[in-house]
């Protein structure tokens, strides 16, 4: 039962960050396509935002591990 709960926790917890990173990267590529001179600034902001978004998935992973092993 704990395995199912852990699987659901990480599955649901990874949906949001996955969608967010996809949208973020797509919009960044559009912005770079429109204004190639601003690519370094856009890329820096994109990587920082991806790191914050990925942190949410890591929190979901931690919750899933706690459910599984505690």
Automatic annotation (TrEMBL):
Q: Which domain of life is it from?
A: Bacteria
Cross-referenced CDD domains: ATP-synt_Fo_c
Which SUPFAM superfamilies does this chain map to? Answer: F1F0 ATP synthase subunit C
Q: Which Gene3D superfamilies match?
A: F1F0 ATP synthase subunit C
Q: Which GO terms describe its molecular function?
A: lipid binding; proton-transporting ATP synthase activity, rotational mechanism
**Gene Ontology CC:** plasma membrane; proton-transporting ATP synthase complex; proton-transporting two-sector ATPase complex, proton-transporting domain
Domain V-ATPase proteolipid subunit C-like as annotated: residue spans: 4-67
Marked site, Reversibly protonated during proton transport, at 54
Q: Which residues form the signal peptide?
A: none
* Pfam families, per database record: ATP-synt_C
Keywords, alphabetical: ATP synthesis, Cell membrane, CF(0), Hydrogen ion transport, Ion transport, Lipid-binding, Membrane, Transmembrane, Transmembrane helix, Transport
The record's subcellular location field reads:
Cell membrane; Membrane
Q: Which residues cross the membrane?
A: 6-25, 46-67
Report the membrane topology from the UniProt record: Multi-pass membrane protein
Database matches in HAMAP family? ATP_synth_c_bact
Q: Which family is annotated?
A: Belongs to the ATPase C chain family.
* Record function comment: Key component of the F(0) channel; it plays a direct role in translocation across the membrane. A homomeric c-ring of between 10-14 subunits forms the central stalk rotor element with the F(1) delta and epsilon subunits. F(1)F(0) ATP synthase produces ATP from ADP in the presence of a proton or sodium gradient. F-type ATPases consist of two structural domains, F(1) containing the extramembraneous catalytic core and F(0) containing the membrane proton channel, linked together by a central stalk and a peripheral stalk. During catalysis, ATP synthesis in the catalytic domain of F(1) is coupled via a rotary mechanism of the central stalk subunits to proton translocation.
PANTHER family per UniProt: ATP SYNTHASE LIPID-BINDING PROTEIN, MITOCHONDRIAL, ATPASE PROTEIN 9
Its protein name is ATP synthase subunit c
- What is the organism field in this record? Candidatus Taylorbacteria bacterium RIFCSPHIGHO2_01_FULL_51_15
What gene makes this protein? Answer: atpE
């Amino acid at each position: 039962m704990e395995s199912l709960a852990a699987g659901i926790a990480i599955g649901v917890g990874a949906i949001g960050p996955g969608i967010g990173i996809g949208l973020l990267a797509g919009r960044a590529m559009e912005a770079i396509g429109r204004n190639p001179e601003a690519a370094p600034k856009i890329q820096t902001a994109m990587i920082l935002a991806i790191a914050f978004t990925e942190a949410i998935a890591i929190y979901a992973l931690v919750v899933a591990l706690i459910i599984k092993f505690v």
